[in-house]
Specification:
Blueprint (H helix, E strand, L loop, with lengths): L1 H6 L8 E4 L2 H12 L5 E6 L3 H9 L3 E8 L2 E2 L1 H7 L5 E4 L13 H14 L2 E5 L15 H5 L4 E6 L11 E4 L5 H11 L5 H13 L1 H27 L14 E5 L6 H11 L4 E2 L12 E5 L5 H23 L6
Helix pairs in contact: 2-7, 9-11, 10-11
The protein binds pyridoxal-5'-phosphate.
The site of pyridoxal-5'-phosphate has 12 residues, from helix 2.
Length: 322
């Protein structure tokens, strides 16, 4: 019911498998549909943790560049026309935050159909939409034929809960269930029951409504503070969804500037450059804003902005010759 009302995804409860998070779901599902050495299209830049999972399982991740409309399907077709799967974050591209346009969604679905490939739709933060209506999920458009939908409670509740899920095309249920049985049998039922109670009682929806307001405020405070305190050295587009933002230096800035500032500023999160595979990386940071009090966020943002300015100054100082 939640998936139908929130994401336009109609599916039978038998099509849903609970896992201990997104990577666990990826691992189980792919072990049922791929063979070692198979190619998987991945967004570039993209989610480094998923790339690690693919490499660890012996699949070949093929980086496909992303623009303001999402993954560039035409590039994927050229780089690896016979890939067996594509892993995408169409609602809110990780890390850049763009929404995959409808023509690109249709192009991706068309490729998957013709190539006999599957699409792994990682819908990790759709519950946190701040402006405008989201586009229907890929799985909703496709009616769960070629798309495997991946969801998580890591953002809506908390990461330490370790509960995620996938919604599967009917034709994959038997193979995926067999793969699951060989791996860890089934998830812990205690927390699963607690989450079901939250969903059924309305407590889940009420909590989402409450934290959405807090996170919107946190997003605005972080973006404003970073831009103001860095004197414009960092540009921070405000994301319309999710729990992270990207703060970027001018593309001409050396990548070491961001690395130095992050270390000196004691910031957690990814360096933007670490999310790239083949495309030339941009200097900057990927920063989360949920779960922190506003004064703490402001202080951390000011510190990171200050260290960014000072790393920039240090880099631009002329080197003295003896
Ligand atoms: C792109 C992306 N997918 C999925 C997840 C959730 O992962 P998990 O459910 O394994 O905690 C995250 C968490 O940060 C993420 O950034």
């Amino acid at each position: 019911d939640h998936l139908l009302s929130a994401r336009g995804l109609r599916c039978d409860p038998d099509q849903i498998m609970l896992t201990s998070g997104t990577l666990h779901a990826l691992r189980i599902v792919l072990s049922a549909i791929l063979r070692a050495g198979d190619q998987v299209w991945c967004e570039d830049p993209g989610y480094p943790a998923a790339r690690k999972t693919f490499a660890h399982c012996g699949y070949r991740a093929v980086p496909v560049p992303v623009d303001e409309h999402g993954m560039r399907i035409a590039k994927g077709r050229i780089a690896a026309p016979s890939a067996r799967a594509a892993y995408v974050t169409p609602s809110h591209q990780f890390p850049l935050g763009v929404q995959m346009s409808m023509p690109r969604r249709l192009e991706l679905l068309d490729w998957a159909k013709r190539a006999g490939a599957f699409i792994l739709e990682d819908d990790y933060d759709s519950e946190f939409r701040y402006d405008g209506a989201p586009l229907m999920s890929l799985a909703g458009i496709d009616r769960l034929q070629r798309v495997i939908y991946l969801g998580t409670f890591a953002k809506t509740l908390f990461p330490g809960l370790r509960i995620g899920y996938c919604a599967l095309p009917e034709r994959l249920i038997a193979d995926v269930t067999a793969a699951r049985a060989a791996l860890d049998r089934f998830p812990g039922t205690l927390m699963e029951g607690a989450v079901a109670d939250m969903l059924n009682s309305g407590a889940f929806a009420a909590n989402l409504k409450r934290v959405r307001k807090l996170y919107r405020e946190a997003r605005d405070v972080l973006a404003e503070t970073l831009e103001a305190a860095s004197d414009g050295a960092l540009s921070v587009p405000v994301p319309s969804q999710g729990l992270h933002l990207v703060a970027r230096f001018d593309p001409s800035v050396d990548l070491t500037v961001a690395a130095q500032a992050k270390q000196a500023g004691g910031a957690e999160g990814w360096l933007l450059a670490d999310t790239y595979s083949r495309t030339r990386p941009l200097p900057g940071f990927v920063l989360g804003f949920s779960g922190h009090a506003v004064p703490q966020l402001v202080a951390s943002a000011e510190r990171l902005a200050r260290e960014s300015r000072s790393a920039l100054r240090a880099k631009s100082k002329p080197v003295r010759r003896a």
